[in-house]
Amino acid sequence: MAAVNGSVNGPNSVAVTGTATGKDSLGVLGKGELWGVRAQGAIGLRGEGETWHGVEGISQSTTGGFGVFGTNTAGGTGVVGISSGWIGVYGESQSGSGGSGVWGEHKSGGNGVVGIGHGNGAGLYAKGGRVAGYFEGDVEVTGDIRLLNADCAEDFDVGTSVPVEPGTVMVLNVDGALVPSDGAYDRRVAGIVSGAGAYKPGLVLDKRSSERLRQPIALMGKAFCKVDASHGAVAAGDLLTTSPTPGHAMRVSDPARAFGAVIGKALRGLPDGCELVPVLIALH
Fold it and tell me: Could you read off the pLDDT of 55-111 as tens digits, one per residue?
């Protein structure tokens, strides 16, 4: 049984129309135990809003009902959103238990979500709090991976009670953890604490939770390093090794002692004093 039944036959005809002009008024409101509004036709349902929503769907179901549900049984699209000035489809969740703003699932082996960008636009853009993206499973890329930051780092256990300042030269201790260097030509050198100056890690390996303090150590690429030029002025291209100054590098002046203790190559000179210097890391 239908409370309202509208039938019409003719071009540009409308079976049911509702118009409201008062403040916060609704043109059509449908409530039902199963469906609030269900429509079929060339355009099953059309809603126009001058200041807010064209169509609003609200569900109070606690077992998986949808605010808006769209189905296409003939190979077309279930739901389409088009905007000429903002967002085509917007999804928002206020769940405190892990709900998703937008959920895409393909149950026959296809893609759950597809994003296509044109020109300089991105096919998929993600921005998060702790992480922008999280993947369970393999990731395949057919184009280039362009990381905008500098070095390749790896998390290591740090043998100190407080975090070590970025740019510090680190060496292995007897337990295999890393501590700031404190001697010249130390072959235990492992790398530089990543993140100093303008260079941030582009890739961090072995990122995991631990009861011990862990920090990213730059192992390859460019990183800013603490350098002490009091042991010899540094020129661009000079090899660097550990120095007697804790956590600092110095210019290699004795190549015979430097084997196995080289940190990398200075990318900028330092005539005197102690400063952060950009270094091309090359442990050998």
Answer: 777 777 777 777 777 788 887 888 888 888 888 888 888 887 777 888 888 888 888
Nearest to 186 by CA among 200, 171, 175: 171
Say how far residue 207 (Cα) sits from the centre of its chain: 15
For the chain, the domains span 12-105, 151-281
Other Cβ atoms closer than 10 A to 148: 6
Counting Cβ atoms within 10 Å, is residue 30 exposed (0-12), middle (13-18) or buried (19+)? middle
Q: How many other CB atoms are found less than 10 A from the CB of residue 170?
A: 27
List, in sequence order, every residue forming a beta bridge with 156; answer none if it has no partner. Answer: 215
Q: Is 217 helix (H, G, I), strand (E, B) or coil?
A: strand
Structure tokens at 189: 């050198």
Partners of 191 in the beta sheet? Answer: 170
pTM, rounded to two decimals: 0.71
Distance between CA atoms of 154 and 279, rounded to whole angstroms? 17
Which tokens go with 113? Answer: 């979500």
Supply the DSSP string of 133-200, one letter for each residue: ---SS----SS----SS-EEEEEEEBSSSSPPPTT-EEEE-TTS-EEE--STT-TTEEEEES--TT--
Q: How far is CA 261 from the centre of its chain?
A: 36
Phi-psi region of 12 (alpha: psi -120 to 50; beta: other; left: phi over 0): left
Just give the CATH number of 151-281: 2.40.300.10
Q: How is residue 229 annotated by DSSP?
A: G
